[in-house]
Amino acid sequence: MGALRGYHGFNNWRKMVVEEESDYIDRTICFGFELEITQDYDVNGYWYWNNNKTPEKLADELESYFGDLFVYERDGSIGEEIEIISQPMSLKYYLENQDKFKRLLEMCNEAKYVSTKGGKCGLHIHFSRSALGFNDIDFNKYKDSIGLEKAKKVDSVRVNKTIENMCLIMETYKDEIMKLSGRSMQSINRWCSFETSETDDLKSIKAVVKKKNKNGTSNNNRYKVVNTTNKNTVEIRVCRGTLLWESFNARILMMYHLVDIARNYTGLLSFKKLVEWNEDSNTINELRNYLENKEGQVEYRNIDIDNVKKKICLSLDSEFRISNENFIGNRF
User: Fold this and answer.
1) Is the dihedral angle over the CA atoms 205, 138, 265, 166 positive or is it negative?
2) Cβ pair 135, 27 in contact under 8 A
3) Are 112 and 72 in contact (CB under 8 A)?
4) What is the full DSSP assignment across 42-106?
5) Cβ atoms of 113 and 82 closer than 8 Å
6) 82 and 37 in contact (C-beta within 8 Å)?
7) Tens-digit pLDDT profile for the chain (332 aa)?
8) Is-contact 44 121, C-beta < 8 A?
């Protein structure tokens, strides 16, 4: 059996974490990506038939090189293509293994496949629902104080609050997120539309994201920038596919920042803080250079990070304190 599977033909997922995270793996924020690539039709002709880089052949080569780090599936919506799906991983695992992800993009380029140029290709990033609630320390405090079953119920509410914050951040900074994503407005409207319009104020945005269905049920449209219809993950669909390392890495890191902040941060949030969240100076400089680039060879960004005036206030602590008897006692 070859490496290239049918669409959604795999379910043996395992979380890739570093050793120090193994004791609290279920509450470590883990993400996995779906990178869609397709053959470059500008070079298909003579080159393609003489090198035989069919989707099946490329999938076999990638599996031979990377083992079970990735899964390869067909997705008929993007032509002669491969959807490369990673195992879920922690940020620490991603950062310690960036050479592997760089090599993945290089091998796809060498095989004359494209992603941005493919037009329909996306880079979708899934985050495990199980880690969007309390971190390991706080969950254990709840468990010791109110018991395991009640702690699980409170945690499910906390997950929904994190998703609400994710949507709030995404909708508030939609202009900047669009530039980061590499997508056109036409592509956004078709594959991953925003929940609110350009004219909605912050009060309206808060009302919309509060009402959004967050519980993994199918009655909510999956083609949204934040797709909440999956049972086990929350999917960020906004990013366009890319085989450029700088674009790929920036989109992964920025979407991770967004989720980590949505789960853990309390206070006034600026776009600058979203960019710089928990990063070292070298990574901050790389992200700023990428986002502020006025003349990208493929994508046009030109985000003046320091002059993005919009700010939002995220508050979590008071509502979810164990001592909040009105919240814990009345609801659970």
Assistant:
1) negative
2) yes
3) no
4) TSIIIIIHHHT--HHHHHHHHHHHHGGGEEEE--GGGSSEEEEEEPPEEHHHHHHTHHHHHHHHH
5) yes
6) yes
7) 578 887 666 678 899 999 999 999 999 999 999 999 988 866 555 555 556 688 899 999 999 999 999 999 987 655 568 999 999 999 999 999 999 999 999 999 999 899 988 677 899 999 999 899 998 998 999 899 889 998 999 999 999 999 999 999 999 999 999 999 988 888 887 889 999 998 889 999 999 999 999 988 776 688 999 999 999 999 999 999 999 999 999 999 999 999 999 999 999 999 999 999 999 999 999 999 999 975 554 556 789 999 999 999 997 666 676 666 556 666 66
8) no
Q: Phi and psi of 127, rounded to 5°?
A: -120, 135
The token duo for 7 is: 């669409």
- Cα separation, 31 vs 88, in Å, equals 5
Residues with Cβ within 8 Å of 171's Cβ and at least 6 positions away in sequence, in order, are 194, 195, 196, 200, 205, 208, 209
Q: Among all chains, which residue has been given the structure tokens 């979203």?
A: 274
Whole-number Å distance between alpha carbons of 279 and 289:
14
Residue in 78, 35, 31 with CA at minimum distance from that of residue 240: 35
